[in-house]
Amino acid sequence: MFHLRHLLLGASTAALMAGAAVAKDDITVALQLEPPHMDPTSAAAGAIDSVLYSNVFEGLTRFMSDGSVVPGLAESWEISEDGLTYTFKLREGVTFHDGTTMDAEDVKFSLDRIGAEDSANAQKALYTAISDVTVIDPMTVEVKLSEPNGSMIFNLAWGDAVIVAPESIENIKQAPVGTGAFKFGSWTQGDKVELVRNDAYWGEAPALASATFKFISDPTAAFAAVMAEDVDVFAGFPAPENLPQFEADPRFQVLVGSTEGETILSTNNKIAPFDNVKVREALAHAIDRQAIIDGAMFGLGTPIGTHFAPHNPDYVDLTAQSNYDTEKAKALLAEAGFPDGFETTLDLPPPSYARRGGEIIAAQLAQVGIKAEIRNVEWAQWLETVFKGKNFGLTIVSHTEPMDIGIYANPDYYFQYDNPAFQELIATLNVTADPAERTAMLKEAQQIIADDYVNGYLFQLAAPTVAKAGVQGLWADAPTQAADLTGVSWAE
Asked: Is the pTM of this model over 0.90?
């Protein structure tokens, strides 16, 4: 409103109208994947965070574009010397989009809900140390841990720990009510989600008055939509082969950032023949990572040899340990009792890295006698049969959560890796605050899962975004899966 009021003071009506026409305050952002529903606290689908993280929902802490963690709904906190008591001071004057006050009771409700027996929270394991949440006063919450956890402030920034309210929880999957800079407007399933500016927002008001998220899964359609300027931004553009064309076109800008997405050939460690480490090692040597990066991602992506982001200072490059070597793969299969190979299934969810990468991997595995039957599945089906049901041999998925090597300490996680020594290491890591000790443990953790060939480690997903030239404030890197629009505006 300030912009218009300023114009009114010293401008004719004609100038005002011209000025108003220039100040564009809506945006259309395309994404490849549509969320299965709108509750980031009860699903493993990163697509929910892509639309809602920071825009609609906020946590006690939050990620910035560079991966740093800053205060969110908690303006400050104190941690007791023994690391077991966190006291959060909440921001005053925060309301949910339905007008109800956000206070300590809502924080208690949200954190208790994560740990509840019937909780559907995909990252429940991150918060198991929370033993008790106490409301001290409306603006103060005390969180007790059963053991120290050096990552708790970081974990609370995840989309899985956003603050929700008991008043609106019943319909959260269809009509999300948060505290963010944008309110949920509408959801036309199969097409788009519309957000509108929250005029009662506690923080800095966003420049945008409204935002539309369009879902375009087909890479060819994605290219057409951007070229025709039907969308203003395509975050996670699914056809990297077209990027040079956009780079050469002055109408567009191309941002290529890094993500937290370890793209892996997930392997069901509990079922035969993948319960045999020699078979898993053979699998790893049968894969030519660079051919997958070049063929499916047109060169975008960094090879990885373990489940850790190469841009992290604690990363260990273990790619040589699972180098491409078909003769070695065949010899290992023979040692494991499969001289003629075997048959398995390869479930591929919709993203390009999976569908395109899967075709290449299936051909590579066939070279060593492993016949992988490709099953193309939609996300809802993948979440049900693979993630929850563990009914798969192999699958390809990008784990976009930040610093998530701890998932390997959960034997019930979908790839079913059960190593007590690893579990003990992560338990010790969680209660260690000393940075040098944590680095040593993280390096050891990377080595253990590489030695056990738990999964086929492919590459770190790149984050290509194509946008109109006038859009500013977009995240280039993706420290968590989010299309954060709170700082986005159009150049005047």
From this structure: no
